[in-house]
Amino acid sequence: MDVTTCLKSLLLAIRQHREHRGTSTASLLQQQIQDVSALECSRILSSGQVLPSECLSGLLEVAGDPNTSPALTGSVLSLLARLASDDESKEALHSRYNIVGTLAAVIHCNRATPEEPIVLQCLQVLQRLTYNVRLLHCASHIDDLLTFLMLNIQSQNHDITKPCLGLMANLCRQNQSVQVQIKSQSNIKAFYRALLNFLGHNCLTVVVFALSILSSLTLSEEVGQKLFNPKNIHQTFQLIFNITVNGDGTLTRNYAVDLLVDLLKNAKIADYLTNYKHLPVCLSEVVGLLHGKDPDTAVKVLELLVSLCSVPPLRRLICQTVLKPAAPRLQPTARNPAQVRGAEPGLALLQWATCPVQGPERCCLLALELFTELFEEVIGSSQSGSARSFLELLLPALQSLLYTPDFSEGDALLQRHCARAGRALDLLLDILYSTCSTAVCQRLPCFI
């Protein structure tokens, strides 16, 4: 059965359940939800079609009804988790529907029994939906949700501790109104103590969640200054780099990288990292992850490297790490140059920067942004010679990216893709003209 037919059947089942609530209509609706969940329907919400929108509005109404059975609500939550599998769908869920308010209301209705499976499922879906999304504090039921999270983080309810911490980390991050609301609570000191106790937890994910919340709430306060002082901050750096390099699951790596990105916005901590004695080794290991890793890992590694480039001394160090001098055995005519010496960081970065347009968009754009940062650093510096060894590989690769035959004016993805490539190409040409011999410069027209 195709997606449209399934959605029409789902909408009919929603209407029947709304008009005649009972076991039979609930069972039929649950079956239709499961049928849709079994289909490949990614990005259907971002398509702007009316039918999916009507279905989702109806399902949120069903989930938000206190009289709906936990089984039926659970089916709706499972479908929401599938629909929120990509950033575009998440954006659609937030911009067009009161999805956070609805799920927060479900949690509020079950606040007396937080051990119920429906509460855990709601928390997990909310954590996925709110990752890297800034919510308005005025959204419905946010205050109730924050109160619930604070109480259960302090209660040591182990079944829901991790998702409560993860969701709280999402809500606090870069959201001053939420931070003010939390810090105005009468039990804030007890909340801080609970978070500090989690720093000794045996689960690294819990530790990173707690650190993330503490950095959002206390970095400019006395508690934060004690926690992230010169004596302790190196332990945090070690934790973040260990998780990034050795992994404790994609989720933990994402939050660990986000934590360091946020900490770097503090000038003192950026200075501490610059003087971190293990940083050169850590950066070398992080850059090494660009070779042969999955797109999810590559995205976070590239996000971290681009963020580090905002600190001039760190950008110079990353430049030295990535643009290592290449040996003479590089072969510009190789079909896939990144396979010639795949372990070389610059070529691994090249592979992500020139991945197919249908591939991981975020990886490509971040890789091009990192190239931009690195070549801004080397132009006119003593390091420019280290980049020359693989420039002839990079130029034709960027040329093919710039002049992709599938480009269309209406395709925003390709426009962004080519804009990044164009910026990187401009910088590379500047380097060639400023550092290379006349003979090399004369060869440039064949690339542009």
List strands and helices in order, with pairings.
Layout: H1 3-19, H2 23-37, H3 50-64, H4 70-83, H5 87-96, H6 99-109, H7 117-130, H8 142-154, H9 161-172, H10 176-183, H11 188-198, H12 204-218, H13 222-227, H14 230-246, H15 250-263, H16 267-274, H17 279-288, H18 295-308, H19 312-322, H20 345-353, H21 361-378, H22 384-387, H23 391-402, H24 412-435, H25 438-442
InterPro entries: ARM-like, ARM-type_fold, CIP2A, CIP2A_N
Protein name: CIP2A N-terminal domain-containing protein
Domain CIP2A N-terminal: 26-431
Strand content: under 5%
Overall spatial form: flat
Main β-sheet: number of strands, strand sense, barrel status? none
Low-confidence stretches: 326-343
* Structural class by helix and strand composition: mainly alpha
What is the end-to-end distance? 49 Å
Pfam families: CIP2A_N
Protein name: CIP2A N-terminal domain-containing protein
Organism: Ameiurus melas (Black bullhead)
Domain CIP2A N-terminal: 26-431
